[in-house]
Amino acid sequence: MRKWLLICPFLFILGGIPFFNQIEPKIFGLPFDLVWIASGVVFSSLILAIIYRIDPQNKKEEKS
């Protein structure tokens, strides 16, 4: 399951760009595609935090 979660950020950024590659609408003064990529970075960080929490090897290191 952990390895499948690593595919999500990849699909989010690369899979979404062809569909959302447009300047309008502007969000916070930024083009939509730039906001899409920035939200992909945040999404990737969240996925990596989730993977870190559910990884059993990290739980073994915390107990030591």
Features:
elongated, mainly alpha
List segments where confidence is low: pLDDT < 50 over at least 5 consecutive residues: none
Strand segment tally: 0
Helix tally? 4
Any idea what the radius of gyration is?
Answer: 16 Å
Q: Structural class of the helix and strand makeup?
A: mainly alpha
Oligomerization category of the chains in this entry = single chain
Order of helices and strands: HHHH
Please describe what this structure looks like.
The chain is built from 4 helices and no strands. It is 77% helix and 0% strand. Helix 2 (7-20) runs antiparallel to helix 3. It is an all-alpha fold and 64 residues long. The longest helix is centred in the C-terminal third of the chain and has 23 residues, at 32-54.
Concise description?
Helix content is 77%, strand content 0%.
Please describe the topology of this protein.
Blueprint: H1 2-5, H2 7-20, H3 32-54, H4 56-63
Helix pairs in contact: 2-3
